[in-house]
Amino acid sequence: MKNEVTQTSYGRLDILYRISQTFNSSLDLDQVLELVMDEVIGVVKAERGFLMLLDENNQLVSQTARGLDQKTIEEKDFSISRGIAEQVAHNGDPLLTSNAQLDPRFDQHTSVHLYGLLSILCVPITLKGKILGVIYVDNRFQKGIFTIEDMDLLGTIASSAAIAIENARLYKVAVEKGRMERELQMARDVQVRLIPPNLPEIPGWSLASCWIPAHEVSGDFYDFIQVSPHQLLMIIADVSDKGMPAAMFMALSRSILRSVAGQGKSIAEEVTTANRLICKDAAEDMFITFFYALLDTQTGMMSYVNAGHNPPIFYQAAEDRITILTRTGMAAGVNIDAPYTQGELTFQAGDFIVMYTDGVTDTPVSGQPLGQERLKESIYQQRADSPPKMLDWLKQEYCTFPDSISPVDDLTMLIIRRGQTQEG
């Protein structure tokens, strides 16, 4: 008798060793669980074995179902007592019955009697006190085949399974994170190519720009389009959303705005056409604000449409005065029939305009958003500087963040001044 017990113990240790090796053999969880369930069915003489995990809604979902023939059981054959599996999953206590048909605990379990289940053994899969799911085995043809020792063995296997499941989950998360990071990097690379790599070189004019995404991709952009030898179209824009949806909508909107440039009788007409096209493709709750300006680089006259965007700041040197270019229409993508009007101004020597997105005015300064008034005051203080110097000062003052802090929003600025040569 002693030899029999010893042989049984060695046999089960051998099984546990093999199962441990199986769990460590792969991070393909489905494959590992199928191999383990085959081992379990063989050692406890079960007809069938099922491993189920709790999903985010705390509902049991089958991960693998195997039979004596080491083949996967199709879903239509899942004639098991889900009530028993759910009971074990929710109270964490293992369950063993030698004859479920006569066990008073299952009088109310219709499936036990409907499917003629006899021997049933079910144990929880637990990791650090949290129940992940259950291992369930049964036999519809033999009663009394499962023992207390089988329950203990299955409990040990379940503990190993819990670790394997968590390792596979972490591996999957890492792989998915790596894939997403690669895709985001690719998206960022594509987006960077949509931002002008160089500023236009215009005799008698000086320009500066910056584009600082808050995350990997951005909903902000700016663009220059040479409509004619002396006409330069400038656009600065901000999509309402963030992340990949904003980046995709940004690319769409940029393409539409480029397609209408120079195609209308006026820039107001071009923006009206662009809005209609954007409205047709805009997802719900997505819109774009932008400042759309056509500059005659010879006369200094600029026509503009402010489509719900942050008011650009226009400085007139002769009057030493700042003017705010308020909105002349609503954001695009909201109302297909929205009307747009245009404003006009003329640059004299020393005049400049600062265009920006709300990431600039939302930047925290001493615990409060910078705001339009403080930005206006800062620009006025630096009014004698060239655009590159002014932009460097603004970036240093308001757009520089420690490594541990990210901008609250995308930051984009565009400055153009008449009467100075371009500086690096």
Description:
The chain is of the alpha+beta class and 424 residues long. The chain folds into two domains: 2-166, GAF domain (Beta-Lactamase, 2-Layer Sandwich), CATH 3.30.450; 188-418, PPM-type phosphatase domain (Phosphatase 2c, domain 1, 4-Layer Sandwich). 38% of the residues lie in helices and 25% in strands. The protein has ten helices and 17 strands. The strands form four sheets. A five-stranded antiparallel β-sheet has the order 2-1-5-4-3, sandwiched between helices. A five-stranded antiparallel β-sheet has the order 6-17-14-11-12. Strand 15 (364-365) and strand 16 form a beta hairpin. The relative contact order is 0.09. The model is unreliable at 1-7 and 401-405 (pLDDT under 50).
Primary descriptors:
424 residues; alpha+beta; Phosphatase 2c, domain 1; five-stranded antiparallel sheet; 10 helices; 17 strands; disordered N terminus
Query: What's the N-to-C terminus distance?
Result: 92 Å
Number of domains: 2
Total strand segments: 17
- Percentage of residues in helical conformation: 25-40%
CATH superfamily of the largest domain: PPM-type phosphatase domain
CATH-derived architecture of the largest domain:
4-Layer Sandwich
